[in-house]
Amino acid sequence: MATTSDIKKGLCIVYNNDTFKITEFQHVKPGKGPAFVRTKMKSLTTGRTLDNTFSAGHKIEEVRVETRKYQYLYKEGDATYHFMNNDDYSQIALQKDILDSPDLMKEGETVTIVVRAEDELPLSVEMPASVILEVTQTEPGVKGNTATNATKPATVETGASVNVPLFINEGDKIKIETDKGTYQERVTN
User: Fold this and answer.
1) Contacts of residue 59, Cβ cutoff 8 Å, sequence gap at least 6
2) Which ranges carry the Translation elongation factor P/YeiP central domain (predicted)?
3) How much is the average pLDDT of 9-25?
């Protein structure tokens, strides 16, 4: 059994007879009253998110997990994604609801799949912190309109839409933060 002091991003726990992954947390120590931990959790079976507050010292049941590197192969239909294990080349097919940012995955991308240790059940797919994708469609920026942090929508090679600065053009490669799906920087070859 773990306690609230063990809570960190990515920790998998059992809560209300379901398996959850901690996506955000904040330790709060108010001036008056006991400390507590405010969390945002994602159900690994249903995909729904839940905000929850644990009082300090609360016992939580941790799920033992293993991480494995897989390569994203292809998407079948609208909801099935195929991956290949980088160690033994076995393939698995996973549903869209356990993927963190499926619209930013490009074929050949290496991801980390979190697997429950006791029954080898895949719980979630974690993307790298950032990905580099090519802009396939965007409106041209208007020269001289850059006094503020103005942005415009752009479509990248995976089909995702990202807001980018006005100086980004079609064919440019950009780095995107996968957690928030936001533009970070332009990448030069």
Assistant:
1) 1, 2, 3
2) 67-123
3) 85
